[in-house]
Amino acid sequence: MSTARSTQPKKKRRLAAYAQNLKDAYTISRRTYPWIGWALIGTAAASILLSIAIALGTGMAVWYWVILGIMLAFLLDMILLSWTVRRASYSQIEGVPGAAKAVLDQVGRGWYLEEQPVAINPKTQDVIWRLVGRPGIVLVVEGPTGRTQRLVTDERKKINRILSTVPLHVINVGTDEGQVRLGELSAALRKLPTKPTRLTNSEISQVSKRLSSLGTKGLPIPKGIDPSKVRPDRRALRGR
Q: What is the pLDDT of residue 50?
């Protein structure tokens, strides 16, 4: 009896946490996409009506297809909510110094990301993040392209001194012409060329260790740049 009683509060807490995550995801999405509520209702209604139409057209049990329609409606709504909450979260922090770290933390396997920025301009709060993956070394730059050229040039020189044969890519994140928008950063990383050079897992590890010798650890972060404060809720981003 004690075991059964102890599991009930846990289930209730999990359900409450799940419901709260859905509410948070909806709230975040609605700030950027006011139409999300109507879209969720419309998607659910269309799924159920479609299931009824199929049941009537095939002569099968209506109740069976309605249940399938409800399940499909829930699935489609979760996909839609997950899609909007991710883009809404990024749009709401776009332009905040250090915001690119929120996206880079989500890039997944195959990448090694420095936890701290490798270069910062304390006056303008321009930032450079560095990561290593299959395409090679990638510098993700936050700030106007013209203003950050000096930072990028200095970082290129440091890297070329010890890893001149490893491909080096630069992605400028921002809203100016020619820059990559925050919400498109993950896609830009996936599109980086891996030919003729494609790093293996062991090579990624070796390159990362070599880069750590550049002495960027402990680089002070100016006031106003705190990546931990601009990261969107990861559970909400996953639609949980």
A: 93
Q: Are residues 131 and 183 in the same domain?
A: yes
Structure confidence at residue 218 as a pLDDT band (50, 70, 90): very low
If asked whether residues 125 and 214 sit together in one domain, one would say: yes
For residues 170 and 158, give the distance between their C-alpha atoms in angstroms, rounded to a whole number.
Answer: 14
User: pLDDT, tens digit, for every residue of 142-154?
Assistant: 999 889 999 999 9
* Polymer length of the chain: 240
**107, 215: one domain:** yes
- Of 186, 123, 112, which Cα lies nearest the Cα of 150? 123
Q: Is the pLDDT of residue 99 over 50?
A: yes
Give the domain range for residue 64: 2-93
The answer on 143 and 45 residing in a single domain is no
- Calpha distance 12→19 (Å, rounded): 10
Predicted pLDDT of residue 234: 47
238: in domain:
no
Last residue of a domain, one of 93, 109, 129: 93
Rg (CA), the chain: 23
pLDDT tens per residue across span 146-175:
899 999 999 999 999 989 899 999 999 988
Q: Are residue 113 and residue 166 in the same domain, yes or no?
A: yes
DSSP 150-213: HHHHHHHHHHHHH-TTS-EEEEEESSSTTSBPGGGHHHHHHTS--SS----HHHHHHHHHHHHT
To which residue do tokens 């776009």 refer?
Answer: 94
